[in-house]
Specification:
- By secondary structure, the protein is of the alpha/beta class.
- It has 4 domains: about 5-170, Rossmann fold (3-Layer(aba) Sandwich), CATH 3.40.50; about 175-235, Helicase, Ruva Protein, domain 3, CATH 1.10.8.60; about 240-350, Zinc Finger, Delta Prime, domain 3 (Up-down Bundle); about 370-435, DnaA, N-terminal domain (GMP Synthetase, Chain A, domain 3), CATH 3.30.300.180.
- The chain has helices spanning about 5, 20-30, 50-60, 75-80, 100-110, 130-140, 160-165, 175-190, 195-205, 210-225, 230-235, 240-255, 255-270, 275-285, 295-315, 320-335, 340-350, 370-380, 380-390, 405-415, 415-425, 435-440, 445-450, and strands at about 35-40, 85-90, 115-120, 145-150, 165-170, 390-395, 400-405, 425-430.
- Strands 2-3-4-1-5 form a 5-stranded parallel sheet, with helices on one face. It has a 3-stranded mixed sheet with strand order 6-7-8, covered by helices on one side.
- A hairpin with a 2-residue loop joins strand 6 (about 390-395) and strand 7.
- The radius of gyration is 30 Å and the shape is elongated.
- The protein binds adenosine-5'-diphosphate (ADP), magnesium ion and zinc ion.
Length: about 450
């Protein structure tokens, strides 16, 4: 059993946070003033299902209705094991239609075995309009022994007519402190050894969801040998430590391409290119307002734009490493050749997609009427992927293709006839090299790199 399921609270006292909801539900049970239609809303993994089940136990426990279900009687046990015939859980995301609501209405006519028949409807906002209309009638006059607990992550999608029939509870995402405490409790019970830093990193990454936090804790305990440390959680979550970015940016600002690039290669031994790039974006974003950073604001904006470009390039590329090479070079070059006067021009002209031409075909090549890549995709999707990632220009009867690696070039050579047919040419020139407009924009970076 997963940790998240194993540590699902069975009584109100064990539910973390959600104090207001707990209080109202417990009071209702103890006074015997039972609401017949409740709505639990809030993001995933914060206790909606958990509280619904505990409330159902409170209703049906042999000692009940009570805010302290015994957990030992037949009814409590059946509910804990998910076997109670009186507590019916329905996922509205996969049972959206009016026929599903009709089925509930059929069943409702039969008396419960215990005290109440409880319907827990998850993701209720997914119901169709028809289904909602039909449900509305039941909500207006439910049998006295029926309780509906509707749960949703998106309450705005529920029709107002339905909302007005419900007693509404907004459940809150958990704070980092609450999550850390719960993780500590679970680790202690499980004999998992974990540092405070690791706990904090997991809690911060869980965006308020205790379920997500427990899933991450479980992963970390499998990932780490012995004590789970901050470093291991960083690796697992793909959080590149901030000091690595800081020193990378120093190289960039000195225009030291060789060192900057080597640093990235070191980092990407431990982290994926995607993690590196999105972390870089976050790093530069944070430093936009860093007063101790002695570069002009405009330059920070440009660096941010370049980091965002890198993130996009890497996400879309088949060969992220050639983009890293290009994008890091671009960042290093900018500081050396661009002055502030050129910045606005630069921002305006910055290409966000690969350059379209190589070597320099005439500007007015007519656009081809068909979509050659689409045509190739039908026969060979991988090839189409390589081509859409390449720089392609057509001049007269020749297709110029610039690709990032020899492997890709060979793949294209293997399928030359298909390429020729799709583009309607009889020659194909393939060149392996870095994206070409680099030099146009920033000068001879490659020579620099070779001579460094
Ligand atoms: N408030 C909470 N207190 C303690 N554990 C919780 C809480 N919320 C979520 N959890 C943990 O996350 C798991 C999933 O919670 P659940 O109630 O199903 O979330 P949802 O809000 O998505 O219905 C539980 O089994 C439990 O381990
Ligand atoms: Mg749920
Ligand atoms: Zn009981």
């Amino acid at each position: 059993m997963s940790l998240a399921n194993k540590y699902r609270p069975k009584v109100f006292e064990d539910v973390v946070g959600q104090r207001f909801v707990k209080k109202v539900l417990m009071k209702a049970l103890d006074r015997g003033e039972i609401p017949h239609a409740l709505l639990f809303s809030g993001p995933r993994g914060i206790g909606k299902t958990t509280l619904a089940r505990i409330f159902a136990k409170g209703l049906n426990c042999e000692l009940g209705p009570t805010s302290k279900p015994c957990g030992k009687c037949r009814f409590c046990k059946e509910i804990d094991e998910g076997k109670s015939v009186d507590v019916i859980e329905i996922d509205a995301a996969s049972n959206r239609g009016i026929e599903n609501v009709r089925e509930i209405q059929e069943q409702i006519r039969y008396m419960p075995v215990a005290r109440y028949k409880v319907y827990i409807v998850d993701e209720v906002h997914m119901l169709t309009t028809e289904a909602f209309n039909s449900l509305l009638k039941t909500l207006e006059e439910p049998p006295s022994y029926v309780v509906f607990i509707l749960a949703t992550t998106d309450p705005h999608k529920i029709p107002a007519t339905v909302l007005s029939r419900l007693q509404k509870f907004n459940l809150k995402p958990h704070g980092v402190g609450d999550i850390v405490e719960r993780l500590k409790y679970v680790s202690a019970k499980e004999g998992i050894s974990i540092t405070d830093e690791a706990l904090r990193l997991i809690a911060e990454r869980s965006s308020g969801s205790l379920r997500d936090a427990l899933v991450l804790l479980e992963q970390a305990s499998i990932y780490a040998d012995g004590t789970i440390t901050g470093r291991e959680v960083e690796e697992m979550l793909g959080v590149v430590p901030d000091n690595l970015y800081a020193s990378f940016m120093e190289d960039v600002l000195r225009g030291d391409f060789k060192r900057a690039y080597e640093k990235v290669m070191d980092i990407t031994e431990r982290f994926s290119p995607q993690d590196f790039a999105s972390g870089l974006v976050r790093h530069v974003e944070r430093r936009l307002t860093d007063e101790s950073w002695d570069i002009p604001f405009e330059e920070r904006v440009i660096l941010l734009k370049m980091a965002l470009d890198m993130e996009t390039h890497i996400r879309q590329a088949y060969d992220p490493y050639s983009w890293i090479y290009y994008d890091v070079a671009r960042m290093c070059a900018f500081k050396r050749v661009i002055n502030l006067d050129e910045i606005s021009r630069f921002l305006g002209s910055l290409p966000s997609s690969p350059p379209q031409k190589f070597p320099s075909p005439s500007e007015n090549t007519p656009p081809s009427p068909v979509d050659p890549i689409g045509e190739i995709e039908r026969e060979n999707p991988t090839l189409a992927g390589y081509l859409s990632d390449a720089t392609i220009a057509k001049e007269d009867d020749t297709l110029y293709v610039s690709v990032s690696s020899a492997t890709v070039a060979n793949r294209i050579r293997d399928n030359l006839e298909l390429v020729k047919k799709a583009y309607g040419v009889s020659h194909v020139e393939i060149k392996v090299g870095r994206k070409e407009n680099l030099r146009d924009l920033f000068g001879e970076i490659k020579e620099d790199w070779d001579s460094a």
